[in-house]
């Protein structure tokens, strides 16, 4: 009898589309492997292009495209750092309640203040998790991944989820699906596969 248990994965992002840009292909691989995937989006993108209702619907569609569950943080877009303690408690509660095994979040080396705030809060909240990794965003700087996930088979899923964020894809070159594909190709070149996503590990327990 197989006693294998599925893994519960939590991906935390500051705004709608952040998670898809950073680790959408990896999340699709988790889902394909039978893992439970939860996306926690801290704000509804009130300060960005598009209205809140539209961005909410886009994020819901994107999560469905990846086969993930969706949770909202309801914090203020652009000033997440002003709610640092609430954010730590929010992520900590999700990690505890859902018994999260793997956490993906922003890099602390990012030019967007919300991304940095989410990264620092998540690292604090997930301090007892055995696998915690940072993904890269278009606004990340000096990112040097040491861990790669082959997303050759799930790149189209990532792009389909990203296209759900029509208000962002049409308004910002930073959400360009062409550039995302190029980046995946470059990370694939680095890791010797067709397409990949790169991560910086904060903690990574190898199961051997």
Describe the overall structure.
- The protein is of the alpha/beta class and 208 residues long.
- It is built from seven helices and seven strands.
- Strands 3-2-1-4-5-7-6 form a seven-stranded mixed sheet, with helices on both faces.
- α1 (18-32) links the parallel β1 and β2.
- It is globular, with a radius of gyration of 16 Å.
- The model has no long low-confidence stretch (mean pLDDT 94).
Notable characteristics:
7 helices; Rossmann fold; globular; 7-stranded mixed β-sheet; alpha/beta; 7 strands; 208 residues
List the helices and strands and how they pair.
Layout: E1 8-13, H1 18-32, E2 36-41, H2 52-66, E3 69-72, H3 84-98, E4 102-105, H4 113-125, E5 131-135, E6 147-150, H5 155-163, H6 166-169, H7 177-191, E7 196-204
Parallel strand pairs: 1-2, 1-4, 2-3, 4-5
Antiparallel strand pairs: 5-7, 6-7
Strands, count: 7
> What is the first-to-last residue Cα distance?
21 Å
Strand order of the largest sheet: 3-2-1-4-5-7-6
Low-confidence stretches: none
Major sheet, described briefly? 7 strands, mixed
Arithmetic mean of pLDDT: 94
β content, as a range?
Answer: 15-25%
Question: What is the succession of H and E elements?
Answer: EHEHEHEHEEHHHE
Structural Rg: 16 Å
CATH superfamily descriptor: LmbE-like
Assign the CATH class. Answer: Alpha Beta
Q: What is the CATH fold-level name?
A: Rossmann fold
| CATH architecture heading | 3-Layer(aba) Sandwich
Helix content range of the residues, please?
A: 40-55%
Put simply, the count of helices is 7
What general outline do the C-alpha atoms trace?
globular
């Amino acid at each position: 009898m197989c006693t294998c248990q599925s893994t519960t994965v939590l991906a935390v992002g500051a705004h709608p589309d952040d998670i898809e840009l950073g680790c959408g292909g990896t999340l699709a691989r988790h889902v394909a492997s039978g893992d439970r995937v939860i996306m926690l989006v801290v704000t509804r993108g009130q300060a960005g292009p598009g209205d809140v209702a539209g961005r909410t619907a886009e994020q819901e569609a994107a999560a469905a495209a990846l086969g993930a569950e969706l949770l909202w943080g309801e914090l203020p877009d652009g000033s997440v750092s002003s709610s640092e303690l609430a954010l730590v408690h929010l992520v900590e509660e999700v990690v505890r309640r859902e018994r999260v095994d793997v956490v993906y979040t922003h890099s602390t080396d990012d030019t967007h203040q919300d991304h940095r705030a989410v990264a620092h809060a998540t690292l604090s909240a997930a301090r007892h998790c055995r696998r915690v990794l940072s993904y890269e965003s278009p606004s990340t700087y000096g990112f040097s991944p040491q861990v790669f996930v082959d997303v050759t088979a799930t790149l189209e899923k990532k792009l389909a989820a990203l296209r759900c964020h029509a208000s962002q894809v049409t308004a910002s070159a930073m959400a360009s699906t062409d550039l995302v594909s190029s980046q995946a190709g470059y990370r694939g070149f680095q890791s010797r596969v067709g397409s990949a996503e790169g991560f910086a590990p904060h903690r990574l327990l190898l199961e051997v």
